[in-house]
Design brief:
The chain is of the alpha/beta class and 285 residues long. It folds into two domains: 1-29; 31-283, Metallo-beta-lactamase, Chain A, CATH 3.60.15.10. The protein is 31% helix and 25% strand. The chain has helices spanning 3-26, 65-73, 91-103, 119-131, 191-199, 222-228, 248-256, 264-267; strands at 33-37, 46-49, 55-58, 80-81, 83-85, 105-106, 109-111, 135-137, 142-147, 150-156, 173-178, 181-185, 208-210, 232-235, 260-263, 270-274, 279-283. The strands form three sheets. An eight-stranded mixed sheet has the order 8-7-5-3-2-1-16-17, with no helix packed on it. A seven-stranded mixed sheet has the order 9-10-11-12-13-14-15. Strands 4-6 form a two-stranded parallel ribbon. Helix 3 (91-103) runs parallel beside helix 4. The termini are far apart.
Length: 285
């Protein structure tokens, strides 16, 4: 190889290296938030993967199906969940969390003081105590900062809301805000909770709604849906479930407000990814 060719190759390599360095210096990959509405049958479980590396699980479904879903939707060697939120003590929301506690390193749990004598909830509390997992009992509306542009707002129950008369209506209602995109999680909250939120003039607007109580007729009132005005509504329910969820009236109301409807019984796990400006939806079916 002659000297001119060597100089040219060396010079070209240097320019390429400088270009790569400049590219790496100025290139900042988009940070994505992903929310996976897990297909756990007739129950609720939502996995939040933040742009800052946190894993948050809202409810765990009715049994150990949640473990297979977490295995498919978390990195292979990931065994840490930063926060588990149990919206309320019903079996179809809490039972799977027992298996989650036994397999994953759960850093803390957020729940209400709503009472229940149901055996799965008692077993959940026993497992929490055995694992010595820190528990935060919700005392009212809270705002949790997860990153510089990522906030989890606990909208309900408030500090003056009495708990225990109806566990569905005791459900934690939370809003996740990432830049310009918002997700509203409602547990099994129904018309009573919806009316309270509307009366308090809480900002319910959200791009994505986790439809309350699996699409029951006792949730997702038209006034509430209009206040949320979601682009996307996700219903978590089991295929051919004994309750007939989602109910036709609920589907009619969701269609009336123009929401795109996704259902875990028909679509499988629904994965929603956003950079804070745009939303991308994928499903397993």
């Amino acid at each position: 190889m002659n000297r001119r060719v060597r100089i040219f190759l060396i010079g070209g390599a240097a320019i390429s290296l400088i270009g790569l360095c400049l590219f790496l210096f100025f290139y900042h990959p988009a940070k994505f938030l992903e929310v996976d509405f897990l297909n756990v049958g007739q129950g609720d479980a939502e996995l939040i993967k933040t742009p800052y590396g946190q894993n948050i699980l809202i409810d765990g479904g009715p049994d150990n199906k949640v473990l297979a879903e977490l295995g498919r939707n978390l990195p292979f060697l990931e065994r840490k969940i930063d926060l588990v939120i149990n919206t309320h003590p019903h079996d179809d929301h809490v039972s799977g969390l027992i298996d989650v506690l036994n397999k994953y390193q759960v850093q803390r749990i957020l729940m209400t003081a709503a009472p229940s004598n149901a055996p799965p909830f008692a077993e959940f509390l026993k497992t929490v105590a055995a694992k010595k997992t820190p528990v935060i009992i919700l005392a009212g509306q809270e705002e949790i900062t997860l990153g510089p542009d990522l906030i989890l707002q606990i909208l309900y129950p408030g500090k003056n809301d009495a708990l225990g008369s109806d566990l569905n209506e005791d459900s934690i209602v939370a809003k996740l805000i990432y830049k310009n995109e918002e997700f509203l999680f409602t547990g099994d909250a129904g018309n009573i909770t919806e009316a309270k939120l509307l009366a308090e003039k809480i900002d319910l607007k959200a791009d994505v709604l986790k439809v309350g109580h699996h699409g029951s007729e006792t949730a997702s009132g038209l006034d509430f849906l209009r206040a949320v005005s979601p682009q996307i509504a996700v219903i978590e329910c089991g295929a051919n479930n004994q309750f007939g969820f989602p109910k036709p009236d609920t589907l009619w109301r969701l269609n009336k407000i123009g929401a795109r409807i996704f259902r875990t019984d028909l679509n499988g796990t629904v994965k929603i990814k956003t950079d804070g400006a745009r939303i991308e939806v994928k499903s397993n079916k």
